[in-house]
Amino acid sequence: MSETDDPILSTESLVNARIASRWLADYQRRLLTYLRTFEDGILKAESGLEFVSWTPLHHWTVPEKSTKPFSDRTTWHFLPLLAVWLRWQTNPKKNGKVVGAARVDLHVHLDSGWKRGPNKQHPDPLKMDDAAACCSPVHASATRIFPRDGIVANWEEADALIAEAPPEPGQMLAAPAGAEWLLTRRLKTDLALLPNRSAVEKILIAPLAEMLKRPEPSASR
Asked: Which of these, 73, 142, 201, 220, has the minimum number of CB atoms within 10 Å of its CB?
């Protein structure tokens, strides 16, 4: 048999793909329940928050057009919930008045074994680290900006300040940002430690909600 006649999809591989797709669909259904629980909790803590975006972390979304639509790089494009970044944010200008701003970010990674290869190549799914030895990292953060003198919150300036001196997981950063003050807290955990709603509320929602309710750190000025 020539190389061109080698089977691309064997009966065994098709059966495995059916099983895997059903497991993945079940995971994504459970993850969406988890995300609804998280959203309900942060919206109670900060009623002005609105869901603004979610973005795949490891890859781009599936393009409508492509010069190479069937390249290997497309392998992971159809698995957007494998690693996803979600953001909630308030409208910093309400009824024509500057009221401050708050933002919550959530990063959820199913598989820590997903690592880019040389030249930023996507990994071969059959050559990744042992799945049992990997983990499912979760990163969450909440940030509040207190604007001064009617200036609308400057998120770019706040992000630059946080990147320059990021707080350790669980710790809070209170710092001046130009004409503003900001508070931010970052959390790091694992999906395995968030098996139910009470765990999500205790490990993620409660610390973020506590930070969002804090007053402006004027005493630190």
From this structure: 220
Element containing residue 86 per DSSP (H, E): strand 83-89
Judge contact between 42 and 210, C-beta under 8 A. Answer: no
Query: How confident is the model over 63-97, as pLDDT tens digits?
Result: 666 666 777 767 787 787 889 999 999 875 555 55
Give the chain's largest Cα–Cα span. Answer: 78
Distances (CA, A) of 6 to 2, 3, 114, 150, 215: 7, 5, 28, 68, 66
Round to the nearest angstrom and report the end-to-end CA distance of the chain. 77
| CB neighbour burial string for 194-205, b if at least 16 within 10 angstroms, e if fewer | beebeebbebbb
Comparing 55 with 97, the larger pLDDT belongs to 55
CA dihedral 64, 65, 71, 75 (to 10 degrees): -10
**Nearest alpha-carbon partner for 135 in 113, 107, 106, 116:** 113
d(Cα 174, Cα 215) in Å, to the nearest integer?
Answer: 11
Q: 173: which strand partners?
A: 184
The alpha-helical segments, DSSP class H, found in the chain are: 11-45, 155-164, 197-200, 206-212
Distances (CA, A) of 219 to 69, 174, 215: 57, 11, 10
The label of the residue with tokens 């320059």 reads: 164
Residue 89 to residue 43: CA distance in whole angstroms: 10
Least confident of 58-72, 97-111, 115-129, 153-167: 58-72
